[in-house]
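Re: beginner question about structure tokens

> Can someone show what the tokenized structure looks like for a real chain? I only ever see the sequence side.

Sure, here's an example I had lying around. Input first:
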Amino acid sequence: MSKKIESQSDKEDGRMVVATNRRAFHEYHVLDRLEAGLKLNGNEVKSLRAGQCVISDAYAMVDKKENRAWLLNLQIPEWTRGNQIDAHEPKRKRALLLHKKEFRRLREALMLERRTLVPLSVYFRRGWAKVELGVCQGKKLHDKRQALKERDARREIARRVKR
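And the corresponding structure tokens:
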């Protein structure tokens, strides 16, 4: 299961982060970010509040026929202390709650070549389950190598400044 990661900015923003998709930042260039609500069942909310969520394999898609956006492959395990009647499928298709303007902006951004919609984090804000979506473009192998070199250089500079 994912760890709870909270930074100072998250606390100021009123966020309680449940899971972050660290792999997305390694494999994609994040061009734009968007916050969307998640449509969940009661037991799914309880599992999320307990910090149980796997976001690394998740992705989002826009259904142009229905004018809806969906989050797929987000794994929220069943709530073990609940009854079996309210049990849910862990990797079910979940609706994303967006305003019309946000949906249009998202659809237009995805029409451009080689763009994809990736969930970056799942969190609670003011008691509501939210997901941060990123309009992303895939990185090439040399881009990934360059990012690793830059990260190592920043670490080395921080070490030397600390001394």
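Each token stands for a local structural state, so reading them left to right follows the chain. The chain is about 35% helix and 30% strand.
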